[in-house]
UniProtKB/TrEMBL annotation:
InterPro entries: Methanogen_methyltrans, UROD/MetE-like_sf, Uroporphyrinogen_deCOase. It comes from Desulfitobacterium hafniense. This is Methyltransferase II. Its EC number is 4.1.1.37. Gene3D superfamilies: 3.20.20.210.
Amino acid sequence: MNKSPEQLYEERLKRVNDAIQLKVPDRVPLIPIFQAFPFYHYGVTLEEAMNDYAKAAEAHDKLYADFDPDLAWDNVLLYPAKVMELLDLKWFRWPGHGVRANSMYQFLEGEYMKANEYEELISDPTNFIMSKWIPRSFGALEAFSNLSSMRDSLWLGWFSSFYPFSLPEVQKSLNTLMQASEELARWFGSIFEYRQKLKEKGFPAAWGAFAFAPFDMVADTLRGTVPALMDMRKHPEELLRAVEAMVPIAIESGINSAKTMGNPFVWIWLHKGVDDFMSDEQYKTFYWPSLRKLLMGLIDAGLTPMVYGEGSMNTRLEVLRDVPKGKVLYHFEHVDMFRAKEILGDVACISGNVPNSLLYFGTPQEVKDYCKKLIDVCGKDGGFMMDSGALIDEAKPENVKAMFEFTKEYGVYR
């Protein structure tokens, strides 16, 4: 008997939620994050996908006709090229704008906040972002450096805070921002439309919001990796206070987006807290306390943090235990998964670790053998979801198919 899309939707969502809550689902859930793979596999260039939202949707249609994940992604991971072009985004290169038409986009780090600007950020993060970070990040919005803090607008203060909007260069930037926002609205519209299509086909949407560890918010796009890591020694107090100032911003962003999207899954992409970048003591001082506050803020709001660990996090596993039971998913890329299961298995669901290199260079049998080891150990008694180590871009379709087919056949609990 064929199941209806409504039945499949509820079945898949229950499977995922059971795993997160450390219950034993009917089988191991499959939640790989497909980024460029559907476009590479179905003959749409990345440049086309970032400019033609209908073409991007068609590639995803074919993907879900051929594969059967328990959580499904839309086009949110390929950003709208027209918006970035209009705004002249400085810290990105994308297909047709700095890289070839079918190459993945690249992040360009820069020092968009100087070490002597910590106090300015801490005292008024909103004004710093508006009048310093935005004009430094977007060439078309450089005139925003003329804007003053809106918190000065009480009583007659608005005379001064409103005046900069009369400047021709500010008005030009505002007009460009309006054009970019209209295109951004079209992109978001395509995402909402596709999410509805996914639901009608029986697929729960994978995401409700994106968030970042407060330390990464400072280190990724404000200070940059090297300056931020140096600040742990040169400016530790200022860095800690800045990270703390990011906590409410991160929590509010996750809650507001998840409510808008009507989806509780908040994906938190971890970057700088890996084994290679800081010691255990530094991690416990600069990274984990604020990350835990973010996790707890989301959990208290009834949301599910999906913590996506990129890189090696073997020395962090004991620290990651300090969360409420059955409320968090920890995804791992390069981690001893058997040890992760041993340490975290009674506290949090874990996922990931199927090497992207194996999906690209290996054979279907090698993929099945790897998945079997993960299911045998990490899948024992639930609390595990099958996923690649990192977002899937280049991979052999037959290897991705092997991961799916084997998990559905072998990863059954009852």
